[in-house]
């Protein structure tokens, strides 16, 4: 076996891995990227992008549901699920080839196959051995394996994005982002949806008041939600699936055609032979320092969903990849900063969030002004007949800076970015209020969301 030499070998060609290539190639380093499956990874092929195509259809159904408020008469809509899945697949089909072209243009050697360590600076892929100055682990995440009998009967988000037949009923184990986003699409398409969440609150990391609004609107469209459950086992029953769980100390069951693993995702690092790479890890979590570097092997960096401590989001994967790339070029100088990273749960209406929740701000002992608004009576919300239009903005009393902003509906998935920008660049609540906004837009409501100062 011959050994090839590269300055940087990247394991994984998703957002994180691609993010690394910019800085290291600009510095003239030689780069190999090993990708076992589709270039682009989860976000464009099995995540954000195809999911949003389904969400857009759910949004259209939501608008149709409220057409009568605008005095538009429409018959009962009928969604052709198989055609929708075909549309989704068609929209993403060229992405891996386009990315391959862009990596070739960047002079990145893309190698197809599964890479794993055979030494601290050596990676094997098929019958090739790559000697690397630096190795980057950008291998993403996979659904959390659940240690319960019948776990193998569950499907995953990958299956939901591919199955051309709409199931009549679905149970989600876990009430996080995947359950809510897909649950909204399925419920609007006509499926019975049940969500079983272990903790007392859906979307446990999100602001409790925002989640309460979203839960109420999810129940309005027929989604059954049970929180604080303990899922015990799953079994087949007359061609369906039966989930056994306890709720309030009482044994219960729920049945559906499909049961989905929506219980979170864990770093996909267990087939990398980390021991051979001298990469310290415990329970599937690689030990890293604040520069995203392995604490035991200084040649190894980690970025994206494979990082066990940061939010698993596509822009964060790209951002961490860029930081790792810059740390490889300049030495370990840069640390990721997550405080102003906005995120959105693409339900219809969406829940969008940036910064601290109210509970976290209060736990930190900060003196805060909390501006909460139910905006359903505001002109903009009434114009569009919004079912939920809610905001909460948390402002630091001493600095007048934004600490957190949370929205349900009211174009919150767009407005949240304005608040992320304000947080990142220290724009104060007063300055946000003073800005002049195009009218009538949802953004023009921002100044009213912040009270009168
Ligand atoms: C259903 C779903 C919807 C989502 N929606 C959103 C959203 O709307 N917004 C958002 O911000 N985030 C969303 N996410 C999260 C987002 O997709 C991820 O955070 C992001 O894609 C992570 O990028 P990554 O590069 O770290 O990992 P990935 O994109 O998963 O890339 C890792 C790559 O490594 C490859 N690989 C793994 N092991 C090896 C190996 N040993 N050798 C070679 N290659 C290997 C894999 O094949 C994969 O291509 C969603 C996720 C899911 C599952
Ligand atoms: N819009 C987006 O940005 C988006 C969309 C989809 C997925 N994602 C990413 O993908 C990742 C995975 O999504 P997800 O929804 O699977 O995870 P999640 O972390 O959002 O939610 C998992 C939920 O499952 C619960 N849970 C865990 N074990 C359980 C059990 N045994 N029984 C019942 N409930 C259980 C958790 O308490 C949590 O509420 C997320 O981290 C998210 O960042 C992002």
Automatic annotation (TrEMBL):
Tell me the protein family, please.
Belongs to the class-I pyridine nucleotide-disulfide oxidoreductase family.
Where's the Pyridine nucleotide-disulphide oxidoreductase dimerisation domain?
342-449
What does the UniProt cofactor note say?
A: Binds 1 FAD per subunit.
So which domain of life are we looking at?
A: Bacteria
Q: Where does FAD bind?
A: 52, 115, 139-141
Every copy of the FAD/NAD(P)-binding domain together lies at 6-321
The record's disulfide annotation reads 43-48
Which Pfam families does the entry mention?
Answer: Pyr_redox_2, Pyr_redox_dim
Organism expressing this protein natively: Bradyrhizobium archetypum
For this protein's source organism, the top of the classification is: Bacteria, Pseudomonadati, Pseudomonadota, Alphaproteobacteria, Hyphomicrobiales
| Name under which the protein is recorded | NAD(P)/FAD-dependent oxidoreductase
């Amino acid at each position: 076996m011959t050994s090839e030499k590269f300055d940087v070998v990247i394991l994984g060609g998703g957002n994180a891995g691609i993010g690394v290539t910019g800085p290291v190639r600009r510095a003239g380093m030689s780069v190999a990227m090993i990708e076992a499956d589709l270039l682009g990874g989860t976000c464009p092929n099995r995540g954000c992008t195809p999911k949003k195509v389904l969400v857009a259809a759910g949004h259209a159904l939501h608008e149709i549901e409220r057409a009568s408020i605008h005095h538009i008469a429409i018959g009962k809509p009928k969604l052709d699920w198989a055609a929708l899945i075909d549309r989704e697949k068609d929209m993403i089909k060229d992405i891996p080839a386009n990315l391959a072209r862009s990596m070739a243009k960047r002079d990145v050697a893309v190698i197809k196959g599964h890479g794993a360590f055979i030494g601290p600076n050596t990676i094997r892929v098929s019958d090739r051995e790559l000697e690397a100055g630096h190795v980057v682990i950008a291998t993403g995440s996979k659904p959390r394996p659940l240690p319960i009998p019948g776990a193998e009967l569950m499907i995953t988000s990958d299956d939901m994005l591919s199955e051309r037949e709409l199931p009549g009923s679905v149970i989600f184990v876990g009430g996080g982002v995947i359950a809510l986003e897909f649950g909204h699409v399925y419920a609007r398409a006509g499926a019975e949806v049940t969500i079983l969440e272990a903790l007392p609150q859906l979307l446990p990391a999100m602001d409790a008041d925002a989640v309460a609004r979203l839960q109420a609107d999810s129940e309005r469209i027929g989604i059954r939600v049970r929180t604080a459950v303990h899922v015990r086992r799953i079994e087949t029953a007359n061609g369906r699936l039966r989930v056994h769980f306890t709720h309030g100390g009482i044994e219960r069951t729920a049945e559906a055609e499909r049961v989905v693993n929506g219980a979170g995702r864990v770093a996909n690092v267990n087939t990398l032979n980390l021991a051979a790479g001298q990469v310290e890890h415990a329970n599937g979590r690689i030990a890293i320092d604040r520069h995203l570097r392995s604490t035991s092997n200084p040649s190894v960096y980690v970025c994206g969903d494979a990082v066990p401590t940061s939010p698993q989001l596509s822009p964060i994967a790209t951002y961490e990849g860029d930081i790792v790339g810059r740390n490889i070029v300049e030495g370990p100088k840069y640390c990721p900063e997550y405080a102003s990273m906005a995120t959105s749960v693409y339900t219809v209406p969406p829940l969008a969030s940036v910064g601290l929740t109210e509970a976290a701000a209060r736990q930190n002992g900060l003196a805060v002004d909390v501006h909460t608004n139910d905006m359903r009576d505001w002109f903009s919300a009434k114009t569009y007949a919004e079912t939920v239009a809610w905001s909460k903005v948390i402002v630091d009393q001493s600095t007048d800076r934004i600490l957190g902003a949370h929205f349900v509906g009211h174009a919150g998935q767009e407005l949240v970015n304005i608040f992320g920008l304000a947080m990142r660049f220290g724009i104060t609540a007063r300055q946000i209020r003073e800005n002049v906004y195009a009218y009538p837009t949802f953004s023009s409501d921002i100044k009213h969301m912040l009270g009168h100062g």
